[in-house]
Design a protein that fits this description.
DUF2252, globular, two-stranded antiparallel ribbon, alpha+beta, DUF2252 domain-containing protein, single chain
């Protein structure tokens, strides 16, 4: 290839709606929808070994905490086992139609947060594993999560099936709707939390609806000021992040003996320069109105435990004008070994690009950085966002069967919208069709995988009991 050819812009093919629909129907002939229920589990498969692989790049002192959190329930195990399911999904049939994937689209990775326009929107909210791949992989991860969560809630097989079917039907019908829309209509589509309660709540108990409405009102109080009041105290008149090991450890406590504290703190402060350059110019101007104050390591989630995640405190006009940012380590997506390496130079940029592509509204401070850590000299990728910005997650454990089905409808619609933004929504819609054939296949797949997840959960329990791995269930 000549240098001139190499420098030419990418040629993007544009097919007619009829051609795109024909592609979906042809895929349905090659991979019938009923075939999507099938999954091949290798006999020599070792789920614990996959988890152990991930410990190599994690903080060893936090690995027992990760295992401990995964032991809380079969669903907690599922949340932490994204790599396990990615390996399994790579052996399932798919239509060959790709889109930007969340990569970890289980039901707890949906929730509400504040949009830049200050509305409370419902959307996908975790993109650590995002990368392009078969659209079915997200749908199957979502479907199985409802079956597994339903088992944890002691729901009957019929109640679980109802929730899964409601979720997938919502995805299918929403995709049909997006297929009929103009491109800009799809791009502007969003789901506000009040709309979720209004449109997806048929059959839900009045008390649960009232509780959800109260949670929506409370979410608007969860911001940087709320975090500031919970996570800081005064030290010599200056606010500092509290020390609550192992969950929260100020950065000064992590400085190796013999290294200059002032030098390390200055280097850490300077690292935010790389992040600032990834922001749009107007957001950069806003960020520069805040001064850096302090930083701490903070353990979050289940699957992320052990990665080098931090929180950083900035102050604006005074100590009543705080900004808390979350700095999360971005490692390779668990999907990459099955779909190919990311096209981005850093995994922080991969996460941010995927988030902006899939979400209807994105945090104004989302950005990334590639740094050489002053603590250990290693180069790593991170992405940055606000720690709290009206963030809200519904309590799955407290849901009744009708509430879980209603929540599934919101998740299904949201995932379809996220896929429709980057994937061929017309081809996916044509593949899904108007019958419930795909819905029933996903209900069958979800129960099959819930069975497998219980076996994998038992394998981790046995590994802890035998001493193969160590788990700390106290945090």
């Amino acid at each position: 290839m000549s240098r001139v050819e190499a420098g030419r812009p990418k040629v993007v093919p544009h097919f007619t709606p009829a051609e795109r629909a024909a592609r979906g129907k042809a895929a349905r002939v090659e991979i019938p929808r009923a075939l999507q229920a099938e999954i091949e589990i290798s006999k020599d498969r070792d789920p614990v070994a996959l988890l152990e692989e991930q410990t190599v790049t994690r903080l060893p002192e936090l690995v027992p905490t990760r295992y401990g959190r995964m032991l809380a329930s079969a669903f907690a195990f599922y949340r932490g086992g994204a790599l396990i399911m990615a390996a399994d999904l790579s052996r399932t049939p798919n239509s060959g139609i790709r889109t930007q994937l969340c990569g970890d689209a289980h039901l707890s990775n949906f929730g509400a947060f504040g949009s830049p326009e200050r509305t409370l929107v419902f959307d996908v909210n975790d993109f650590d594993e995002t990368t392009p791949g078969p659209w079915e992989w997200d749908v199957k991860r979502l479907a199985a999560s409802f079956a597994i969560a339903g088992r944890d809630n002691s729901f009957s097989h019929k109640e679980r099936a109802h929730a899964v079917l409601a979720t997938i039907r919502s995805y299918r019908e929403a995709m049909h709707g997006f297929a009929a829309m103009r491109n800009l209509q799809v791009w502007y589509a969003s789901l506000q939390m009040e709309q979720v309660l209004r449109e997806f709540s048929a059959g839900v108990d009045v008390k649960q609806l009232k509780r959800a409405e109260a949670d929506v009102a409370k979410a608007r109080t969860r911001d940087s000021m709320h975090s500031y009041e919970k996570l800081t105290h005064l030290v010599d008149g200056e606010p500092r992040i509290i020390n609550d090991p192992p969950l929260i450890v100020p950065i000064v406590e992590l400085i190796p003996p013999g290294q200059s504290r002032d030098q390390i703190e200055n280097e850490i402060r300077d690292l935010f320069g790389a992040y600032r350059r990834t922001l749009a110019s107007d957001r950069r101007v806003l960020l520069e109105q805040f001064r850096y104050v302090d930083q701490a390591r903070k353990v979050v989630g289940v699957g992320s435990v052990g990665t080098r995640d931090r929180i950083a405190l900035f102050l604006g006009t005074d100590d009543r004008d705080p900004l808390f940012l979350q700095v999360k380590e971005a490692q390779p997506s668990v999907l990459e070994r099955f779909v190919g390496k990311s096209e981005y130079a850093t995994h922080g940029e991969r996460v941010v690009a995927g988030q902006q592509l899939m979400q209807a509204a994105t945090d104004i401070f989302v950005g990334w950085q590639h740094i050489k850590s002053p603590l250990d000299g290693q180069e790593r990728d991170f992405y940055v966002r606000q720690l709290k910005d009206w963030k809200m997650s519904l309590v799955i454990e407290a849901m009744s069967p009708p509430a879980l089905a209603a929540y599934g409808k919101a998740c299904g619609w949201t995932l379809a919208r996220a896929h429709a933004r980057s994937g061929d929504r017309i081809a996916i819609s044509a593949y899904l069709g108007k019958s419930d054939a795909f819905d029933r296949a996903m209900a069958s797949f979800a129960e099959t995988y819930a069975d497998q997840n219980e076996l994998d959960f038992a394998a981790l329990q046995a590994a802890v009991a035998s001493g193969r791995v160590k788990a700390d269930t106290g945090v």
